[in-house]
Design brief:
The chain is α+β, with helices and mostly antiparallel strands. It contains 5 helices and 14 strands. The strands form 4 sheets. It has a 5-stranded antiparallel beta sheet, covered by helices on one side. The chain has a 4-stranded parallel beta sheet with strand order 2-1-3-4, sandwiched between helices.
Length: 219
């Protein structure tokens, strides 16, 4: 998930920036969200900040006190007076704004994808490529996340978790999600998969079978 966070008080300007991002992202298959800086509602995913206020230094201080990873783009021609590692890209027109969006996608693609979740007042972060599969815990609202070395419990629902994952994951039933990168072989007739650890995975519903086949074939 890419979170585009716009620092702009004027809602007309905010909407103009959001519309441009939406139109640009229509060309790509990414899960993303655009939201105002004052109303950040999700603290997970890869964050990209677009600041269009002249008094940006205090805002950068606030962002960097919480997160040193997120890229920050200044989208007004202002003079950078900070020692922070801020991108020196200023947006004067649509062409250069497209460039910043392109750079943000490259950063996202090169950044190790993570899933953040909490359980019993503890926050956990795991890399997506370590997750083998996820399933709803029997007779519970919790979900179990199986990685190469651990098993985690989270209060999040299957659908909510799915929204935070990338294209490597597919829902194989109403209550299970599988990372297709861990499939060693798939028996179409028996509708079962052998995973790379030699275990058998059969939580594949008939209604989602074709979707899994398409994913494996990269259709």
């Amino acid at each position: 998930m890419i979170n585009y966070i716009i620092v702009e008080d004027d809602m007309i300007s905010f909407q103009r920036i959001k519309d441009f991002i939406d139109n640009y992202m229509m060309n790509y298959d990414y899960n993303y969200k655009v939201q105002p800086y004052q109303e950040i509602i999700d603290d997970t995913g890869f964050k990209v900040y677009y600041i269009s206020k002249k008094d940006y230094l205090d805002i950068v201080d606030d962002i960097r006190s919480k997160n040193w990873i997120s890229p920050i783009f200044l989208i007004k021609p202002v003079k950078v007076e900070s020692n922070y590692n801020i991108s020196d890209i200023f947006v004067y027109n649509k062409v250069t704004f497209k460039k910043t969006l392109s750079i943000s996608l490259n950063m996202y693609n090169s950044h190790p994808k993570q899933l953040s979740f909490s359980y019993k007042n503890t926050l956990y972060v795991v890399y997506l490529n370590d997750i083998i599969y996820i399933e709803k815990e029997y007779d519970s609202k919790n979900c179990l996340i199986y990685t190469k070395s651990n098993k985690y419990v989270t209060n999040s629902s299957i659908n909510r978790i799915m929204k935070k994952l990338d294209s490597s994951f597919v829902k194989t039933s109403r209550s299970t999600i599988l990372n297709i990168n861990y499939i060693k072989q798939y028996n179409i007739r028996e509708n079962t998969a052998i995973l790379k650890d030699e275990s058998t995975y059969n939580s594949i519903s008939k209604s989602r079978k074709q979707n899994l086949i398409n994913k494996i074939r990269n259709v």
